[in-house]
Amino acid sequence: MTQPCSLTVIIPTYNRSSYVRECLVALRASGVPDLEIIVSDDGSTDDTREVVAATNPDAKYLWQPNSGTPATARNAAFAVSRGRFVGFLDCDDEWLPDAPARAVRHLDAHPEVDALFAESKMGDPQEGYVSWIESAGQEAFFRLPHVEPEPGFRVLERGPFFRRMAVRNPVFIGATIVRREAFAAIGGFDPQLCGAADWELWLRMAHRFTWAYMAEPLAKYMRHLDNMSSNHDKMIAEFVQSLRNVLTKCPLSSFDRRFIRTQLRAHLFSHAYLAYDRGDIAEARTRFRRSVRAGDIHPVTLALAAFCQLPGALARRVRRLKHTAAPGGRA
């Protein structure tokens, strides 16, 4: 039988060998003596394999044909991992010195917690770094019901955290460590998703399991132009699918089902409006129909759906009203 270790970190990558090298070097200061490192390569054609072998010969290297999403690479690495706890670190991000070890100690001390996420530093070396949680969590996160068994360690009440997660994701994947049993029980990442695969997984886990927040920064989130989250249209499409998954996969209460459907309608409208705003009326027509079928009968939605059926002068006249029909003005 394979001997377990304290913590596994799974690093998905695709043709980013220079990032992989920096990520592996930073992990030397994790503070976890038996850290298992798995680099899960989604079909790279560069020198990633050689870089891993040269930088950390003890790291496991997995290669698979390109799937187009890190979700499959993460799931494949989990299947061969040994850690009691598992973290997921994109190769262009870094763990901070000794913070992973402190996260493991928190989880060992609090068996009621199934998943832990932490503060992170977001930015880049040129522009500097800001707080992740102040941007992604906002004030609403800090008002969530919780208990604080240790200073800087909050155990969050499940229902309010799930609903806050559905509104805005406060969890950075690179600063998240989960119990092996919880990840296995929830079924891993959805391989049909790419940039929103983590949010969809966190939603399912937040509905079923208990989360905690560690105020000490665990990771650096590097912002650059090729971050997957930079493709706004694709991300909103994945947000829509994620919420549909939650409605299908989670045994929601009637209150939570209504709440998730409300969030779904908001994302469907935003997705439709993006197509409308860039002048792709045919695509907007299809998307607004979906929004209305999902129960969005807001006057702005109905007006834009009607507009997308009409060409010519009338279309140009209605488009002049688009600024009053922006997503932020529907309340």
Automatic annotation (TrEMBL):
GO terms for MF: transferase activity
Keyword Transferase: yes
Pfam families, alphabetized: Glycos_transf_2
Sequence ranges assigned to domain Glycosyltransferase 2-like in this UniProt record: 8-131
InterPro entries in alphabetical order: Glyco_trans_2-like, Glycosyltransf_2, Nucleotide-diphossugar_trans
Entry keywords, A to Z: Transferase
Cross-referenced PANTHER family: GLYCOSYLTRANSFERASE, GLYCOSYLTRANSFERASE TAGX-RELATED
Protein name in UniProt: Glycosyltransferase 2-like domain-containing protein
